[in-house]
Amino acid sequence: MQHSSSASAPQIRRVAVIGTGVIGASWVAGFLAQGLDVAATDPGAGARERLTEAVARHWPGLEALGLAPGASPSRLTFFDQLEDALEGADFVQENGPEREDLKIELFRRIDAALPEHVIIASSSSGLLMSRVQQACRHPQRVVLGHPFNPPHMIPLVEVIGGQQTSPETVQRAMDFYTAIGKKPIHPRKEVKGHIANRLQAALWREAFHLVEQGVATTEDIDTAIAYGPGLRWALMGPFLNLHLSGGAGGIDHMLEHLGPPIESWWADLGTPTISDALRQQIAAGVATQMEGRTSAELGAQRDQLLVELITAKARARVIP
Fold first, then answer.
1. Could you tell me the pTM of the whole model?
2. How far does Cα 190 stand from its chain's mean position?
3. Averaged pLDDT for residues 288-303
4. Which residue among 26, 70, 168, 222 is least crowded, i.e. fewest CB within 10 A of its CB?
């Protein structure tokens, strides 16, 4: 079933998921849907119950996307102790707090408990693996495996090694994620926030600026993206979209004619700071948007549409 292309790499049958908050629980559901055994652990009070509820909540969407043979929530085991969850693991997906000092100590403990061939992947949103791996005895097997929320549905995973990560580890991680239906990419350099979060941050910066300047409400911004470029971006990325915008001449023709206006827009973009006033303004705007519905309801609607979109994209094979 799921395996690496490396002949010496053992088959991955059991995944340990460390940290079962929003991202960790989503990973758990996704791994279970692929027919894997999952050992999970989280030190938070009530974590076991919250994880069980999250898997049950995610399962209908995963069923709609299609389950692997043998997939079942019953293949999940929760452990109170980290080392117990790691026993027998073939792959580790870590989802601890986004604090470098805590990550370094957590990876030291994970590394000490595992045979050196087991990959330890982190879901970190912005930390650099070169620093996270520094206390490990076997830093060559530490890699970033950053998903996009919710990872049980969104295919993207960013796989990046630290300075001491071996090329084999990067390739084995890429192979594993591909085998379970993900769309991994391998950024060539470590940068804060990786690729997808940096692209998001660029959009957020201007969105916050436009609200701060009174140009638009939060609802205006969301409508502009959700019913404008977001529809195209859901099908293909910015460069292929630009290429189509150039007609027969493609992206070269488009940049030749619209390059100067684009540069003028770049020069006019804002650099806001998230002050208390702006934070409250944004929060008030979103509260207005959410009137009459809950986050759980909105999340369920999002997931239903994601199922339909992902299924349609798979049929159409839009992305090369």
1. 0.90
2. 16
3. 94
4. 70
